Automatic annotation (TrEMBL):
Name of the protein: ATPase, F0 complex, subunit J
Stretches that traverse the bilayer: 12-30
InterPro entries: ATP_synth_F0_jsu
Organism: Aspergillus pseudodeflectus
Superkingdom assignment: Eukaryota
Record key words, sorted: Membrane, Transmembrane, Transmembrane helix
PANTHER family according to UniProt: ATP SYNTHASE SUBUNIT J, MITOCHONDRIAL
């Protein structure tokens, strides 16, 4: 016996497309803000900064 006994041909990806697009925009903004903060003067020499480790090698 299958888990879902009946197929439901409801559209899923179409109505959710604006939410997927908004999620990508939010993730891009968070990534940009994170990179900007990591490259700021306050955290440029912080030992936890991943950019500092890449520059030393």
């Amino acid at each position: 016996m299958p888990i879902l006994p009946k197929k439901f041909p409801a559209p899923v990806a179409g109505p959710m497309a604006p939410f997927f697009a908004a999620g990508l925009v939010i993730l891009y903004g968070i990534n940009s803000a994170s990179n900007a903060m990591a490259n700021s003067a306050e955290y440029k020499n912080d030992p936890r900064n991943p950019n500092l480790k890449a520059a030393k090698h």
